[in-house]
Amino acid sequence: MKRALFITLNEVRLYLQDKGDLAFGLLLPILTFALMYGAFGGQTLFKATAPIVNEDGGVYAQQLIQQIDDVNGINIDLLTPAEANTKLERSDLLMVLFIPSGFSDTLAKGGQAELVFKQRGNGGTEGQILASIIRGAAERINQEFQVRNQVKSNLEGTGIPEDSIAVTVQEYLDKEHQQPAVGVTEVVTGGSPDFINQYLPGIITMYVLFSLSLSARSIVEERKRGTLERLLTTRLNARELFFGKFLSIIARGFVQTLILLVLSYAVFRIFTPLSFLAALVVSLIFAAAAAGLGMIIASISRTEEAANWIAIVVTMFMVMIGGTFFQVSEGSVLAAFSKISINTYANRAYHTVITQGGSLGEAWQPLVVMAGVAIAGLIISRLVFRAVPGSK
Q1: How far is CA 390 from CA 127, 135, 220, 268, 296, in A?
Q2: Where among 123, 148, 178 does a domain terminate?
Q3: Residue 62 sits in the same domain as residue 202
Q4: What is the Cα–Cα distance from 30 to 46, expressed in whole angstroms?
Q5: Which residue in 102, 56, 48 sits closest to 72, CA to CA?
């Protein structure tokens, strides 16, 4: 056992000295996580630019534009009719609001004015959201007109000047806008921490599995060069050599996850001390399961290229069906296939201890499955490894 540990320590030392392996195993997942966080984990507020053609220029058209501009996250881009039509034809824009001429005069006379949305197809998701926001602003103006007309109707014949009525009504409307009777409070539950919880397990498991290709390739390379046979001429026996290689793959995967978890703990503060220790235990068991698969791949491969491609195919298969970056619906065909992916069980265990704040006892089922995969992989690969010359 002691000699097997010496092999493990030597392999880990070589791994930490290899800048290429470190870049792939440590820097690349960190970079991937940073890019995903920048792309999807930022502000939850909807932001867009509303392209508007103001052919009216009247007071109510300006009022509508101002109300749209007052919406958080919305910017106004005023265009000429020619610019708007050209951009629509080129698909540079999918939706443009046209405020037709006479819009303000029609409203002032008590008529029914209309807004025109010109769009390509359905206007796109952003265009549909903008159209909904614009309709909301137009509805507010419509409600204000209804209030003014109702007040004028009720005060008709009282001798109160219309200008005084209009000013008083506007004061109350402004007060209502500033201090609405029904307030809305936003409680953000899908911000940065939830993003980290959602994607961190997937990134960890994906890159630990990718390290299989490096581990399996190195073992096959040593076998072809006769390094393993030369080691067996020392006091090492085949069992110690094999187990040492197995432990070295576990150590490499664990070091990789340890660094990612420590960075997440330091930067995002998503762990408690207990959940961090629980995540380390999950990482260790998952690294053992991945090592078992890596040893099987190394045992059945006869060339470095074969080991590399088998590891890549296995990794991508595990990632795609294992619910790494998207939720797998229960009862679906994909859910049935996902049961053969160790990523499924690793992600469940990580989510239990990180997202849900659960204990290892609550994650015992996926942990048992991964431990079983590690043991089965060790036994199967050892049996296959006996076919290697000089290793019996």
Answers
A1: 69, 79, 14, 50, 18
A2: 178
A3: no
A4: 27
A5: 48
Q: What are phi and psi of 260, to 5 degrees?
A: -65, -40
Q: What pTM was estimated for this model as a whole?
A: 0.58
Helix residue spans in 226-362 (DSSP H): 227-232, 238-268, 273-300, 304-321, 333-338, 342-350
Q: Check residue 267 and give its pLDDT.
A: 72
Residues of the chain scoring pLDDT < 50: 184, 188-193, 389-392
Encoding tokens for residue 283?
A: 């990482």
Give pLDDT, residue 83: 92
Q: Are 387 and 298 in contact (CB under 8 A)?
A: no
> Would you state the pLDDT for residue 162?
65
List for the chain the helix, strand, coil content (%; round to 5). 70, 5, 25
User: Domain check: are 149 and 247 in the same one?
Assistant: no
Residue 53 in domain: yes
Residue written as tokens 């206007």?
123
User: Taking a C-beta distance cutoff of 8 angstroms, is the pair 213, 308 a contact?
Assistant: yes
186 part of a folded domain: no
Cα dihedral 124/127/132/136 (nearest 10): 180
What does the CA dihedral 226, 228, 232, 238 come to, rounded to 10 degrees? -140
Look up the CATH number of the domain holding residue 136: 3.40.190
- Give yes or no: residues 168 and 289 share one domain: no
Domain end: 150, 178, 206, which one? 178
Cα–Cα nearest to 353, from 195, 201, 189, 193: 201
Q: What is the pLDDT of residue 193?
A: 46
> Is 303 within 8 Å of 309 (Cβ atoms)?
no
Structural domain includes residue 102: yes
User: In the numeric block, which tokens belong to residue 60?
Assistant: 């109510």
Tell me which DSSP letter residue 329 carries. Answer: P
- What pLDDT score was predicted for residue 189? 43
Residue 117 placed within a domain: yes
Residue-range definition of the domain harbouring residue 378: 2-41+193-385
Give pLDDT, residue 190. 39
Provide the number of structural domains found in the chain.
Answer: 2
Q: What is the pLDDT of residue 317?
A: 83
